[in-house]
């Protein structure tokens, strides 16, 4: 009998792509492929690409260039490129032209077709380029091979309708569509049966969950429903758009015991003027009021964020407003990004682009502020007793175990392997810049 063939998937970008990769892996397992831990041994290499910022695309080009050598060595190697970057206009043709050795190019809307494309390439030694420009309905029941045990990501809605003026996601992921609550619940029950303890509900804007569904349900209702799943220990969710985070959702987070007190609430900018140009639909004041409400209603809540520096037209005053907001809200952590022009988005056409050197200077100032505050927030944990879900051995020191607090902070500690997969209480003995140290109590 033939030895099983090997696949290797490289995934860039966010959890949306990560989930698609898990589905591709699931389909390949059904075709008797095994996963390889390196590119060199693989019979099939898949690049799942992201295009949210220019540097994400540059990485893909760089890595594709290197694959040429592998293909020269092994002409039977099948190379597939898929993901968000392929959904951009003329990209598929561009990739085929520049990297003619690529066998399959597909987009984000036809992942379920992959086995057919693969068969075609294997049998006919031809190449396949197929991009669907629009999303079809949601395809349920696809096989999935998950990358982690214990923690799983479950997408509750696909696409985005918000069209922030800098962002490519709505163009490459299509319009917003929600999964039926029973499909989500069944998937989670199945996960729990298989030993999963924590799930993260995913969507570009989870707070608008439920629109267009037959059953009347919103995100707060979904949280309450899932909170009843027996055996599940923790529920997380990402991402919350500030304009749609209602009191009802805040109450659900506060009241549901499994729902963790961590809200990722991208602000993007602290200047009302820029927020308007970004089409974010809230003001600086709205955001600060919302953050305060979260802090008052949800005990010990962690708030994290995304911030863009150097959006077109950003003045010193706009940037100061951002710095000042960061200090006011006191984020537990923040992802900071340099604004990157995305062809096809409205902001790419703005004529008041910010020079790179100014962008970088502002970026460094922001990062310094963000890090100081993160450290201060971590320090507040010293001496406190917190609940941890123990995930396994620490990556950096395998004599230690690691887990996360309900607020998402990483804690390293000495303990017994029996506690892996369980909730335990730890006393935090030391705060470091990006993690905590604890001991069992
Ligand atoms: N749906 C989520 C996140 C989407 S992309 C949300 O609305 O918050 C993740 C982050 O990438 C965004 O929050 C934004 O901060 C950043 N981002 C998106 N487009 C960008 C661009 N053109 N340049 C720089 N950062 C960008
Ligand atoms: Fe992009 Fe805005 Fe949609 Fe987030 S909400 S994915 S930033 S368009
Ligand atoms: Fe990138 Fe697509 Fe996510 S563009 S950030 S992988 S939705």
Short description:
With 441 residues, this protein is of the alpha/beta class. Helix content is 34%, strand content 21%.
What attributes does this structure have?
six-stranded parallel β-sheet, Rossmann fold, Transcription Regulator spoIIAA, binds iron/sulfur cluster, alpha/beta, globular, 441 residues, binds FE3-S4 cluster, five-stranded mixed β-barrel, binds S-adenosyl-L-homocysteine, 19 strands
How would you sum up this structure, described in words?
The chain has four domains: 6-130, 3-Layer(aba) Sandwich (Rossmann fold), CATH 3.40.50.12160; 148-260, Transcription Regulator spoIIAA (2-Layer Sandwich); 262-380, Transcription Regulator spoIIAA (2-Layer Sandwich); 385-440, Nucleic acid-binding proteins (OB fold (Dihydrolipoamide Acetyltransferase, E2P)), CATH 2.40.50. The protein is built from twelve helices and 19 strands. The chain has helices at 15-30, 54-73, 91-98, 114-124, 169-173, 181-193, 219-226, 247-255, 272-277, 284-297, 316-329, 356-379; strands spanning 6-11, 34-35, 44-49, 78-83, 104-106, 128-130, 151-155, 157-158, 177-178, 198-202, 234-238, 262-264, 302-309, 333-338, 385-393, 401-405, 410-413, 423-431, 436-440. It has a six-stranded parallel beta sheet, with helices on both faces. Helix 7 (219-226) runs parallel beside helix 8 (247-255) and helix 11 packs parallel to helix 12 (356-379). The radius of gyration is 23 Å and the shape is globular.
